[in-house]
Structure formats: structure tokens, C-alpha cells
Amino acid sequence: MLTQLFFFIVLLLLVKKFAWGPVMNMMQKREEYVAGEIEAAEKNRADAEKASQEAAEQLKQTKQEAQQLIEDAKSAGARQEQEIIESARQEAARIKEAAQADIQNEKDKALQALQDKVASLSVLIASKVIEKELSAQDQEKLINDYIKEVGEEL
Is the Cell membrane keyword given for this protein (predicted)? Predict the structure, then answer.
């Protein structure tokens, strides 16, 4: 039994020297590898989380910029609408003034034509009055009546 104990102890020393040391080194390396992988995974998770936050921030900023563009477009549209309305009002006023000027010109032309007609009719009346040999007072009364009559028609 002593021999067996002696060989067992020698075997343990040999195993410790030749097998236990390399196995422990391999286990140590494996532990370091796993720890490195865990650390890399944590770092990748942190980087992914950071990238996700940055993407969310960029999305938020993009939404704000889009909203600002929409607001700017709305205000530009409203300004353009007001400009178009004001331009249309000015154009309508200009057309109205031109129409009133045309009406006044036509009225003046009509009055001038009427005055010319009155003058020619006055000459005609005068010639007829001369033919009838009216007195000066009758002629004047006849002309005044005719002028009043023409003035009322205007």
C-alpha cells in the first residue's frame, strides 16, 4: 500500500506538473477569452444604444425641421394669398376708375353731341320762326322753352 501511495503521490506530482498546469493555463485563457467577449458584447451594446439614441435625436431634429418647413410654407402661402388678393383689389379699383373715366368721357361726348343738336335745332327753329314772322319776344320765348325742354331730357 505504501507503494501505491508513493506512486499515487508521484502521479499527482507528475499530473500537477505536466497536466494540471497546462489545463489551468487553458482554463485561464478560456476565462480571459470569455471575459473579453463579454466586455466586447457590452461595448457593442453600449455603442448600439448610443447609435440608437443618436438616430432618435436625428429623427426628432428632422421632424422639427420638417415641421418648420411646413410652417414656413404655410406662412408663405398665406402671404402670397394676401398679395394676390391685394393685387386683385388694386386691379379692380383701377378697372373701376377706368370705367368711370370712360363713362364720364361718353357722357361728355353725349352732352357735346346734344349741344350740337340743340344748336342745329335752334338754327332750324330760328329759320322756322323767321318764316312765321314771330315777334322778338315770341322768338325768345320759343327758344327758351325749347332749351328748357332739352335740358329736362338730359
Answer: yes
Q: At 31, list the grid cell.
A: 476565462
- What is the rounded CA–CA span in Å between residue 92 and residue 90? 5
Q: Is 100 exposed, middle or buried (0-12, 13-18, 19+ CB in 10 A)?
A: exposed
Measured between alpha carbons, how far is 73 from 76 in angstroms, rounded to an integer?
5
Work out the widest C-alpha separation in the chain, in whole angstroms.
187
For the chain, what percentages of helix, strand and coil (3-state, to nearest 5) are there? 95, 0, 5
Residue 133 DSSP label: T
* Grid cell at residue 115: 349741344
Per-residue pLDDT of 34-92, as tens digits, reads: 999 999 999 999 999 999 999 999 999 999 999 999 999 999 999 999 999 999 999 99
Cβ 125 vs Cβ 147: under 8 Å: no
Q: How open is the CA angle 23-24-27, to the nearest 5 degrees?
A: 85
C-alpha cell at 69: 418647413
